[in-house]
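User: Watch each token:
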Amino acid sequence: MRPVLPLFLLILLAACGGGGHTPAPPDTLVRVMDAEVRSLDPQKVSDLASLRVAADQFEGLTRHEAGGGIEPGLATGWSQSADGLEWRFTLRKGLRFSDGRPIEAASFARGFERLRADATGSPHRALFGTVAAVAARAPDQVVVTLHSPFPALPELMAHPAMAALPLHRGEGWATERPLVTSGAYRLVAWRLNDRLVLERNPRWHDGAAPIGHLVGRAVDDRQAAFRLFRAHAPDTLPDLPLNRLDWLKRNRAGTVRIAPYLGSYYFVFNTRRAPFDDARVRRALSMTVERERIAGPLLGFDAPPAWGVVPPELTGTGSGYRPAWAAWPQAKRVAAARTLLAAAGYGPGRPLRFEIRFNSDIDHRRVALAMIDGWHDLPVKARLLNTEASLHFASLRRGDFDLARSGWIGDLQAPENFLAIHRGNAGPANYSGYASPAFDAALDAGLEQADPEARAVAMRHAEAILMADTPILPIHYYVSRNLVAERVEGWRDNVANIHPTRTLRLKR
């Protein structure tokens, strides 16, 4: 027999049901997710919707604060050895899962072993590749040993995949209701392709979270999500439609939150085969793309133009990579590009022909057309190929493309997270097939640096090598485009675009 939902859940689901135009109860935050949650197990999913729900339910040794920075979570703090290879975390006293089971150091050691086990198939295994071991030296002492220095380790340990997970419940723990959790909330109901409901975890170490209940609604159509927001149904929207920006600025300007985001938007060249196995051809096309026009007037949300892959906030200088030719007028860049193409054997009698592949989205098409427009004075004949996202990225992993839309949203606020996917041994994630011993060596040299300033210098050097070789064609750095209802307090824009529900409040 199917269990009867508690009365408060029926109220929550009814308040957010139907057409979604009924305001939620006063102690309930309604957040739109741009996709359905794929799993409640954070070690087995990498999509943002699933990880954001996981972060509300599972806490690690560290956690993100409202401004996107890192603070102690289940640990009281941390220290590291002089060589940066050993980190110690001391747990808070009296920690318990929501079912009453104690949370001890062994919970993290067991979680790490599961994360890197072949049977788990975790997409985060490579992300934690710098971690050699996680050990319980005492019930309240966790020691993390690294293969090489990694100053961003406190942020890495805030990832939901390394949170305290209820593995003591057996492999079926993710199907239990209520879900056993270690963070501020626990899931109590989930209607697939509709919504999920979370309530406060009664045993969370920080006491009662400020907001009593959270409803997550899966809406993958930005226009439909906007209509719900306009009707005051959800409280937060993760991606506002740009064609509604003017209306929002006129009518609900206080809800628009556009801010720098930890991501880079670019296209990748297939360096494995002609014509883009020739760096001269890649450089000619890159230098004639009018980034300022695309990132500004064309897209309409004033994203910073990009000539590199590491966001400016992570370079250590406050500015991104910028080649000398970026300051040249367009006519000079076109002339230089013609010379490069001629040297590679392309001209009016033998134009450069290739295909631009992108996944279905009007903005990707607009960017591709704008790139072609920038090449109109060159001997270039490019055609467009549009496919849905799963086919698009499958083609990239197979190397079945010429020039293709790609990009990277950082897992961590660390430059190496943006650079490592371009290593020669990065596997299918290295869409371009770029292989440079010089770049790999420069990146390795940076990874050996424990001093943050020296590390930043080394990472800038590695990025300069990468961009001189031009396996990718950067367009702009991402910005986050959230809508936040007037009744929500505590929202702080940050480059990680992380806004834990426990840090928010609702106006009374």
In short: The two ends are 39 Å apart (CA to CA). Confidence is low (pLDDT under 50) at residues 1-5. Residues 152 and 414 are 7 Å apart (CA to CA). The longest helix spans residues 452-469.
